[in-house]
């Protein structure tokens, strides 16, 4: 038994694999885009660039798409050239740079073409925050939403010289939003799932009893897409 208000109606065109992830993976970038927007000081001057790391992740790809849909200009960071090539192929458009290339910060500055950078979205944590801080302009904001690398090791002094803010975001706040706003995110999830099904890639499906293999798969190098647990109908 499931409470009726926990159910989301899904049209037949959306596969079970996409339905299983579309809401949770849309809420996160939606909350991030709002936090990024709210961090900008009015009047907002265009174009608005955002710098995002772990950009090949499921959340990262949806974040890029939402940012593009809202008219922002994402600059994407991944760890390796292999990941950069994969990301350019599955979601072409905005620049992608690999942080294992020692020139990545210069490459980001070149991509900005003299425009300011006031928002960076961080899913990696630790020293990655220092790297983002180096690239942000005065009064910019780093929005942290994950710690794939580490939850320690940030040099807090990387923020002070440019008055940078560090903000954290969790989707738990989403559950406290008014119903109207939640409904907009349901609609957004349905729209993304219909228009961009390729953004909801599945790495592998495991039966519930094989949850150990599923957990191991989540951390496997080179994994693309999400790992799903299935149960008999
Ligand atoms: N705050 C919230 O409420 C919330 C909610 C959902 C998700 N999240 C966060 O969103 C992030 C992405 O989650 P996801 O489920 O979308 O991930 P995912 O699809 O499993 O992808 C993980 C990606 O992160 C990169 N990565 C893995 N380890 C890394 C490391 N040590 N340093 C840098 N990059 C690393 C890998 O990219 P490359 O190898 O290609 O670089 C990989 O493509 C995570 O930080 C997660 O905690 C936060």
Instruction: Give the spatial strand order of the biggest sheet.
Output: 3-2-1-4-5-6
Structural class, from helix and strand content? alpha/beta
Average pLDDT works out at 94
> By CATH's scheme, which homologous superfamily of the domain at 20-172 applies?
NAD(P)-binding Rossmann-like Domain
Helix content class: 25-40%
Query: What fraction of residues sit in β-strands?
Result: 15-25%
The CATH architecture of the domain at 20-172 is 3-Layer(aba) Sandwich
In total, how many beta strands? 8
Structural key phrases:
Rossmann fold; 233 residues; alpha/beta; six-stranded parallel sheet; binds NADP nicotinamide-adenine-dinucleotide phosphate; 7 helices
Describe this structure in words.
The chain has a domain at 20-172: Rossmann fold (3-Layer(aba) Sandwich). The protein has helices at residues 16-39, 58-69, 81-90, 104-112, 127-135, 179-195, 211-218; strands spanning 49-52, 73-78, 96-98, 117-122, 141-144, 165-168, 202-207, 226-230. The chain is an alpha/beta fold and 233 residues long. It has a six-stranded parallel beta sheet, sandwiched between helices. Strands 7-8 form a two-stranded parallel ribbon. Strand 1, helix 2 (58-69) and strand 2 (73-78) form a beta-alpha-beta unit. It has seven helices and eight strands, in the order αβαβαβαβαββαβαβ. The radius of gyration is 18 Å and the shape is globular. Helix 1 (16-39) packs across helix 2 (58-69). Helices cover 38% and strands 16% of the residues. The structure holds NADP nicotinamide-adenine-dinucleotide phosphate. The site of NADP nicotinamide-adenine-dinucleotide phosphate (NAP) has 20 residues, from helix 2.
